[in-house]
Amino acid sequence: MGSILEKVSKGFREVPIELERFLKKKYPAFVTDGNLDRLQDEVPVFMFHTVNSATLQSQLEFLKTNGYRTLNLETFMAFIKGEVTLKEPSVLLTFDDGEKSWYDVAYPLLKRYGFNAVGFVVPHYIQEKPSSVTSGKTWLSWSELLELEQSGVMEIESHSHYHARIFVEPKLLDFYHPEFPDSLGLDVPWIGNNGSYTNKLQLGTPIYNYAPRLEGHSRFIDNPEVRETCITWVNTQGGTTFFERSTWKKELTDYYHTVQKTSSSGEYESESQKREQMLSDLIQSKTVLSERLNKPIQHLCYPWGMGSNEAITLSQEAGYITNFWVTLDERNSNKPGDSPFYIPRLKDDYLLRLPGVGRYPLWKIFQAKLQRRAKTVEIY
């Protein structure tokens, strides 16, 4: 019951976020204005994660029917630099993370329709051998990724090395438990552990307020003694079976506060440590992808679409020539003369708001969003 309520709650929490984006004009005119019959000298960028065959096919069919062209990165860059004029209405399709449905679903469909896309990959998770898993989600292998790149159907670029979230303040939110959202490992914060970092957490680990690493926050380093004490106590209470109790969260929270009273809360990393770790993540992703795919890596997409001015500067230092986000205050679409370091993207739901035959009304877009969120708390 708890997981069902969480799914419904998260679905409805998206509504005010979407409404805020509409009120602040973070969406381009073709999304908000049902009367537009063509794009306005712009190239919308759409983002996908894990893909469903029926949904993606309907989206690609819509693009094909209405004469849309999918751009590669070279042409997209030339457009925003004002170096080319596009004769056909055009879009850029981007896929985030590196989940296996890219290879099994998106790749054959893109080939069938004669379209191409960009894949922003988290190299830390890419597997050495193709997965034999036939149900659920799993990661691509390096051989599959190389095939996508060499086919010309999907250009592979960087989505950071770890796709990391970090603790940013000592505000207790939760504890790591068996039903903690953990799609592909991307939702779990990275914590310090014996001189290194991990997101493979043990049951009972306190979860503090967290945010994306590249959003520019200083990492809050939790007290390892408090953490280990909570983990040990959960083990004495039965480990996994402890979380079957309806009162587990209250019991563990009470125990945590008892321990916390006699312990320090933790500390923050220094500015130099923050800068070093952010830059290291950007360089490592670029280096690994370049070596494994035998190509230069020049384009960065921020995990969760959340970066910072500091991340932009560091990405330039690392050698990236673009930054892709989600919605932005700076602009809501991509036009000639726009900065390549503030590229906004739209969720793939809005692809069917493009001008053309079969265009969806907004109510239908939101209905589909809520139905999807009722089934999963994950976007990946």
Q: Can you walk through the features of this model?
A:
The strands form 5 sheets. Strands 1, 2, 3, 4, 5 and 14 form a 6-stranded parallel sheet that branches. Strands 6-9 form a two-stranded antiparallel ribbon. It has 11 helices and 14 strands. The chain is of the alpha/beta class and 380 residues long. Strand 7 (191-193) and strand 8 form a beta hairpin. It folds into 2 domains: 2-162 and 276-373, Glycoside hydrolase/deacetylase (TIM Barrel, Alpha-Beta Barrel), CATH 3.20.20; 165-271, no CATH class.
- Could you tell me how far the N terminus lies from the C terminus, measured between alpha carbons in angstroms? 22 Å
The helicity comes to 25-40%
Radius of gyration: 22 Å
CATH superfamily of the largest domain: Glycoside hydrolase/deacetylase
Kindly name the structural category.
alpha/beta
CATH class of the largest domain: Alpha Beta
In DSSP terms (H or I, runs of 4 or more residues), the helix count works out at 11
Fraction of residues in β-strands? 15-25%
Low-confidence blocks of residues: 1-5
